[in-house]
Amino acid sequence: MNEHLVFMLQLVITGIAVGGVYSLMALGFVLIFKASSVVNFGPGELVLFGAYVAWATILNMKLPLYVALPLTLGVAILLGIVIERGVLRPLIGEPLISVIMVTFGFASVIRGFLNMTWGSDTRPFPVLFSQQPFHLGPVPVSPVHLWSFVGTLALLTAFTLFFRLSLTGMAMRATADNQQVALSLGVSVKWIFALSWCIATVVSTLGGIILGSVRGGVDFSLADLGLKVFPVVILGGLDSVAGAIIGGVLIGVLENLSGGYLDPILGGGVKEVAPFVVLVMILMVRPYGFFGKREIERV
Fold first, then answer.
1. Which of 79, 124, 209, 264 has its CA 20 to 30 A from that of 64?
2. How many angstroms separate the CA atoms of 178 and 200, rounded?
3. CA nearest 125: which of 56, 176, 47, 61?
4. Are 205 and 53 contacting, i.e. CB atoms less than 8 angstroms apart?
């Protein structure tokens, strides 16, 4: 096979793997927006928090993985409860800009707490997968990218089944569609808000663990990767779960192709900028994204 084609396929496969992680993080963003209409401006810090807690439990506290991972997810759930109950619930009924600024502020608090606790140095992340690459036909693939994609796909499938088949998932969908109708059916909307934040912090934590494994280390640049959530959700639509999944994969592939082909020509930096260029272009053409719900106001 032509080596240029092999190179392109390798970029696409890696992009799909990383894009799956973006989809996972975007899922949490969409859930919060659908359930409570809150735009969370701290997704990167949630990813950073999860990655640092995982590093602390696995390498710092020397806990086995089967203990460290549930403990990390438990801390993530606790963080979600603190954010929703202690920070956002008192702001119910307040102007939207107040809620947005609070999410900004809480993201800064998380970043500052992590900096004070563990510092900003790069921390080596435990090697969870084999380092020996294998081949899909003629295309060499890193095991960490393959298993990251498999794990992300399994999680996305599990969450999709949860939303469609479980009573709690149906209650979340009902709350997202119409809070007043959900209340009339006996759904505790406040509990759904809290559950949405807990799921968001859990998926962000899992995204941080996967990204830490892919990068082989944890530092504050992970928060910048969390910002890729915004072009993902704008591309897919702010209120679309399917859009978050598809948008994440598309952004991951676009990012990798830009880095592989344009970075060497333009001297670097294109990979980081490309998703946000696409974000601006989408907003100009389709402000609601490809799968978002178009709101029509009659006057």
1. 79
2. 20
3. 56
4. yes
Ramachandran angles phi, psi of 87, nearest 5°: -110, -50
**Radius of gyration, CA atoms only, the chain:** 19
Closest CA to 204 of 155, 254, 243: 155
* Run of H or E residues at 217: strand 217-218
- pTM: predicted TM-score of the whole model, two decimal places: 0.85
Assign 298 to helix, strand or coil: coil
pLDDT, tens digit (0-9, with 9 covering 90-100), for 163-194: 788 888 888 878 777 778 888 878 888 888 88
Which residues of 73-121 form beta strands (DSSP E)?
Answer: none
Delimit the domains of the chain by residue range: 3-131+138-285
Closest CA to 257 of 2, 47, 1, 18: 18
| C-alpha span between 141 and 133 (Å, rounded) | 6
State the Cα–Cα distance between residues 204 and 276, nearest whole angstrom: 20
Per-residue pLDDT band at 264 (split at 50, 70, 90): confident
What's the gap between Cα 187 and its chain centre?
A: 27
What is the fold, at CATH topology level, of the domain defined by 3-131+138-285?
ABC transporter involved in vitamin B12 uptake, BtuC (1.10.3470)
> What is d(CA 84, CA 198) in angstroms, rounded to the nearest whole number?
9
